[in-house]
Amino acid sequence: MRIALVSKLLVLVAVILLSSLLCLDGAPVGSKTYIVHMTKNATHLDVDAKHAWYTELMDGAKAFLAADHPDDGMDSLHHVYHHVFHGFSARLTAEQVAYMQSLPCVMALYPDRVHKPQTTHSSEFVGLSGENAHLWPESNYGADSIIGVIDTGIWPERLSFSDHGLGPIPKRWKGSCQAGTNFTAANCNKKIIGAKYFYKGYEAENGKIVDGVDENGNENILSARDSAGHGTHCASTAAGRWARRASYKGLARGTAVGMAPKARIAVYKALWEPNGGMTSDLVAAFDQAVADGVNVISYSVGSDVGPEGIPDFFEGAPQADVVAAFNAVKKGVFVSVAGGNEGPAPGSIANTAPWYTTVAATTQDREEQQNVLLGNGEILVGRFGYAASKTELRQVTNAPLLYGGHAAVNGLSAENASFCQAEALDASLLAGKILVCNDDQTSRFSSNPGAAGIIFVQTPNWGESLSVNDGFDFPFTQLGSDARLPILAYIASNSKPTATILPAKTVYGITPAPKVAGFSNRGPIRYARGQWLKPDIAAPGVDILAAGIKNNQYAFMSGTSMACPHVSGFGALLHSRHPKWSPAAIRSALMTTATTLDNTNHTITAQETSSPASPWDFGAGFAQPEKAMNPGLVYDMGRDDYLHFLCGLRYTSTEIELIDRDGFDCPSNPPARIEDTNFPSFVASFGDPDALSLVDTSVSFFRTLTNVGSAGGTYKATVDVQPKGFHISFEPSTLKFSKPGSKKSFVMTVTPRGAATLPEVKLGSVFLGSGSVSWSDGEHVVRSPVVVTVGEVSGLSAN
Hints:
By secondary structure, the chain is an alpha/beta fold. α7 packs parallel to α13 and α13 (about 560-575) packs across α14 (about 585-590).
């Protein structure tokens, strides 16, 4: 035992001695990619010096290669991070991870994670075009802004990316166009001013890409060229030029145009097919975008939300891309992100860091319909699924109608047959018939089991959550759950029911619109340390027509991925119009001028229920960029505000240094509170419902407003809607601004009226309520949502 103990002590001493030296040299290759977050080093100031130092670290760590983890031939060093934090990414074995953690120059190691991608009438729907629209011309259509799109790449030949008539590239631009497979420097122009691709993390996880295929057989183009379509679609949504005669299979004909049609596009391909992208590559893309000089980053990339809620910023699975985004915002870059597509479960919202502008998805007032004509003359409104030829249409005209649940194989589940699982259906009953199938938006259905056509009908949980889906090559359409009873009643009441799947058509002027998309992730944030509002804002994300790839000039796509670039484009326009505004000022302007009303002048509803939605669904509301150009006042924020927020979440100075490499000491007297973070929204959290009757139970908020108007003015506070069971008050209730740029502060207090009256919505053991307040000078209305939670939101189930 004494010998073993001495041996262990000798090894430990050796590691400690070697560690002190090898902060000047060593580390290796291995089985998994990690992001190594390094301390700030005064002697390694540029990328080349850092690269040399990190290479020495990797070389030294090769001594810790275990026999069962030999050098696998992968490059030891993948990316060097210089602008969004200090560090690098590399493949490490478990032994090498332990070694790295022992080095005093290593602050943290983050395991590489997979991220998934999350679509022209929408510019008109959000109010950018028309006689009374001014933001486009006053911002020169965003010409002075550069949008960095971190995504799957771009298909540069599309009309949306023409540089005809564009002026010179902004002089501050430092980027370049990286050549690769089927992509040359000539593919860049005065519109696409830069293009780079980041793949080393992906290759470490999936094998090297050779001749367009990785070792797992996945097809990928080793360049900035887009092989998935997602990045091209997002880039053209944010900043596509005017492309006339756009349509998809004859639908949505018109001029396709992005939100900031003269803004420049910088492409950073870091998402690959079919598995998404690795954090190490995405962080490298952030780092390069900041170095190149972008003004906006459009980040339609997913972030996992597990059953316990959002991951802690420092525990469990560290989020290096969140750290990268903070440092981008710190340098003045507006970062727009997708809120995620796992809705509508409460507590599902993703990408919740306070420096993000997190976007929810809505419908617009245009639909691509493919309706069903029943044999009794009734028409059921459906959503486009199939552009059939005239011959094919005759095959599904007045065809016999059959419910899948009535076609089950003897002895097998009628429920499975109702969802048209091929193995549960009696194929002999299907020929020549239109099959009616339940659809709960899972992957139960993969191919036509032999019917002439198929009608998918949403289950009640998904209500009217419909979007274009042309993923099958046979006649089909989709109906919302409102059509379930009529079509089943018709089948039950008629011995020979028939139906016709009508040709697809585009319909404008849909009411009500917008609706929050059924797939759009929802709040509240299930996080024990504190509460803040996410999403921040909502924008169109259903059936967006934008540029496609390969043989598809245009494509329909839906998702918060499509809502995000709308807001990225708005950010570019506002940056061009107000170049001195901070990212937080741009976000505040969008939030405080948003609307919570649809085109029928009622509260925006949820697509899946048609019931009124809340700030947990749409944030501050549906973005109105025209009004955001002149918001009057903004809730501005900078680096210290975000770090005070982290202090309010009880993180230590050591932990906060992982976010901001310059370090920060949290105040102790008084301690920081997240309620005082200068958000344009308010979340009052009350833990125990029984405590609401206690005297002095209240939540207060300290906020500061900045005048961005052209002159001074007097603003008065108004409680537009009191949350049920609560009272809102202001001190002071009047703010006088002497000149542009002047600041004034106030305290808002939310007080319960007593335990007898709780907020109106109950989810599990949590009560949720909402209201709104505003400041107005008679010309501007600076509106903010106020939400209330009673109970432990951290225990709210999102499943």
